[in-house]
Structures are given as structure tokens and as C-alpha cells.
Amino acid sequence: LAAALVAGAALLIVRGLPQRDWRQLAGAGALMGAGIYLRSELYILVLVAGGLFAVRAVAALLPGDAPHPAPDRAAAWRVVRLGGAGLAGLLIVLLPLWGYYAASAGGPLPQHATWYFGGGTPATAGGLALPPIRYLAQARARLIPDFLAGPDTPTSPVVNPGLVALLLIGTVVVMAGVLVPGLNRLFAGRAARRTGHVPARPANWLLPAGLGILALGTLPVLLDPNPYSSLHGFVLAAPLVVAAFAARPPAGREAEPVTVLGTFTILYLLLHVLIISALSGIGPISRYEWGQRYLLPAYPLLIALVVPALARLAATARTPDGAAVRTAARLALTAAAVLALIGAGFLARGWTALRDGKLEAQSWAAAVAAAPGPVVLTDSWWLPLTLAPDFYARSWFLAATLTAAATWPAQARAAGLGGFTTATTGATLGPALTGATPPATPGPATTRGRVTVQPFTLP
Fold first, then answer.
1. Confidence band, pLDDT 50/70/90 cuts, at residue 342
2. Please, which residues have CB within 8 angstroms of residue 179's CB and are 6 or more apart in sequence?
3. How far is CA 372 from CA 80, 368, 457, in A?
4. Which of 25, 33, 155, 341 has the largest CB neighbor count within 10 A?
5. What is the pLDDT confidence band of residue 123, given thresholds at 50, 70 and 90?
6. Residues 408 and 436 sit within 8 Å (Cβ to Cβ)
7. Distance between CA atoms of residues 448 and 370, nearest Å
8. Spatial contact of 276 and 297, defined as CB atoms under 8 Å apart
9. CB 239, CB 296: distance < 8 Å
């Protein structure tokens, strides 16, 4: 839902800014505020939108080409007023939220966001406390590979260095496939002015090559027979987004919406990686959340840029400029279709993983519901969240350490309990309880997948 709200806000900005429509921009601010209700890290969009309007205002103050060679102060002031309309819409939506947090948490942000944006737990690098650059200090050269393919985790696929290299090379080649034709057009224009001869349009083989390399780097992960339940790389999960680099604006009035959306999306990605991932208190943990949580709203924005890029390729595939030009464009379209199918395959595999996880959680819930007693002890903090209905049906306690587990039987006996139930994903909680004073006597255990449920009695 938050991603949909961000996409709606971007749509209103893309339409409202060229049309100078303050109503659409106020609506964009309201949608951004609604997204912040759901995800606190979307405060970054305030900086993104502010940066976009600042770029537009500064551009209006710079000397330009005909028919507007002089700085346009009226246009710059108009951009500022339109930005003010967006800010007003944002504030109207956010003021009630800030009032609630001020009353409940003592400030305009929830407690977890205060810790998150405030720097979190300091980290050290080279003997110096560096909480503002915790991510960069610890990740170093892993920054780009983690963004492309994600770090290794027990629940993610093993992306070997060769596949990571293919993702990096493919992305770079696609960017070159966009940059080189632009340079060719620049040099061709200069040559035409000097000689009066317009050279033939060269075929762009870099773009299909880069997209094809991306397919080679992602397809083995999709077809990996080993089970995995999460993807953490931003590009790996949806490789077609790299084609957004090719969204060169068309000529005329149609160029402005593409330019606005491209600027908005680039600012969003850069500021998110810099502030949310590099400078936040959560630091390196954020690389586990790039594509599927924190940067999820960026996907629809990039796909919206992919559409005009593919439209240009389709037009080029029908051009009379030459067989080589048409062939290169058709190969790029074919590679893009393959990448789209790979992304759809990851989506289908994700749906399967969600279904399997839901069925597994239902089996855990049934095992816990059948256990005796009103108290459940666990050493997995996330298990009560997964079994939310049972969490409200009985009392759950967390033994985060073996020391806490060893003291639990005495605390339970002092509270008048004659027994309790454990729900654990490991093998250390039970021995810590049986070796405690007084010792807890285990009953028959029930194992469902990763979770073992076992009742204990106290003497």
C-alpha cells in the first residue's frame, strides 16, 4: 500500500508540475503523508520532492537556449509556489500523526524511527566511533554487490561472485549503451555542421548485450533447485529495472514528464542509499531490506521509466535507417522480454514461498494451541509475532539468553505456576530449563518443521 501511495504521488507530480497545477501537487503531498503513516523511512520523500523542486527552480534561473536565453525568475518563483502547495498537502495529512506521537512518544516520530534516524548504536572502525557512517565503515567494497545481488543469508540464494560480476557488468554495459549513442549524436551533429553531411545512424549493440548479460546473471538464481525464501538484491529481484537508464526523453512537450519522473526517481534512489542505508543507525542491516521493504516503492517508478524506453526500442525496430539498427533494437526488446519473464518468475517463486511459509506457520499455531497451560516460553523473539492469535490468547515470555532461561523455572514457581510450555526453534532452551534450580520436568515434545513445542512441569 505504501508503494502504491508513492507511485500515486509521483504520478501527480509528473502531471502537475508540467501543467502548473497546484491541486495535483497538493494531492501528491497528501499521498506522501499517507505513505509516511505506513513506513517512517518514506520521510526521505520529503527531501526527494524538495530536491526536485529546487533543481527545477535553479534550472529556471540559469541562462538557457532560445527561445528562453535569459534567466526566468517568474518561472523559478512559480516552481516555489507549486512546491509550497505540495508541502501544504503534506502538512495537513501529517499534523494529526505528529500530534499522536507527541502525546504518546514525546516527539513527532515513533520510538523506533527516532532511534533509526538518530544514529542508532554507535559502531567502530579503525578505533574511531563512527555512527554516522556505520554502513560505509563496515560494508566498504560490499556496497555495490549487496545493492545488486544482496548479501548471503540462510534464507537467500547463494549468488556466487561470478553471477555478481555478470550483474555488475550487465548494468555497466546498459549504461554505456545509453551514453555512447548520446556521444555519437553529439559528434555527428558537430560533423554535420562542419561538413554538411549527416552520417548514418550506428547500430546500438551495447544495449542488447548488457540486457543479455543481466539475463545470464539472474536466470541461474531463478532456476536454482535449492530452496530459498528471500531475495535481498535490488536488481536481482527485478532485473528489467536496469532498462530505465534507456528512458531518454523524446523531443517536445512529451519530454518533460519523463524528465520529471527520472529526476524524482534518481533522487529517491541516491538519497535513500545515502541516508537510509549509509547514514542511518541500522547500518549494514539495511542491505537485507533494500528491494523488498525499504526501496519497494522505487520499483513502480523505474518500471514507469522502462515503458518509454521500450517504446523507443520498438520504434527503432521499425526504422528505415538500416538492417543493423533494426536488428540491435529487436535483440534489445527480446532481452528485455526475457528479463521481464525472469522477474515474473521470481514473483511466482515468492508467492510459493509465502504459501509454504503460511502453511508452516499454521502447523506451528496448531501445535502451540494444543499445548497445556496459560504460559508459553520461547527463545525466538519473532515467533509470537508469527503466531499472533495465540499471543493474545495466553501469556508469552522471551528467554533471550541461556542465563534468562536458567532463572525462569524459579521465577515461574514463585509466581505460582505448576508448569508451562516452550516453543523453540533451537536445541538449547530445553537443557537450560532441565538443569535449572528447581529443574523443570519435560513432557512429550511435538515438532512441526522448525518449531518444537514441549510442556514442562515444576516440582
1. very high
2. none
3. 65, 9, 10
4. 25
5. very low
6. yes
7. 13
8. no
9. no
**Better-predicted residue by pLDDT, 122 or 142:** 142
Q: Which of 164, 205, 163 is nearest to 184 (CA)?
A: 205
The b/e string for 127-146 (b: 16+ C-beta within 10 A; e otherwise) is eeebbeebbbbebeeebebb
Query: What integer pLDDT is reported at residue 288 of this predicted model?
Result: 56
Closest CA to 120 of 276, 278, 283, 277: 283
Q: Side chain identity at 45, as an amino acid letter?
A: L
Q: For residue 235, give every residue at least 6 positions away whose Cβ sits within 8 Å of its Cβ, in sequence order, or none.
A: 147, 148, 149, 167, 171, 214, 241, 242
Q: Are strands 375-378 and 124-125 parallel, antiparallel or unpaired?
A: unpaired
- At 340, the pLDDT band (50, 70, 90 cuts) reads very high
SS3 120: coil
d(CA 446, CA 194): 84
Which residue carries 516520530 as its cell? 109
Q: What are phi and psi of 423, to 5 degrees?
A: -130, 115
pLDDT score at 5? 92
**In the chain, % of residues over pLDDT 70:** 79
**CA nearest neighbour of 201 among 315, 320, 334:** 320
Mean of the pLDDT values across residues 73-84? 84
Please give the angle made by the CA atoms of 68, 69 and 74, to the nearest 5 degrees: 55
Cell 504460559: give the residue. 375
Residues 6+ apart with CB under 8 A from 15: 21, 24, 257
User: Could you report the per-residue pLDDT of 403-425, keeping only the tens digit for each?
Assistant: 888 888 888 888 888 888 899 98
Phi and psi at residue 71, to the nearest 5°: -60, 140
Whole-Å CA distances, 84 to 22, 26, 73, 80, 166 = 9, 8, 17, 6, 44
C-alpha cell at 27: 494531492
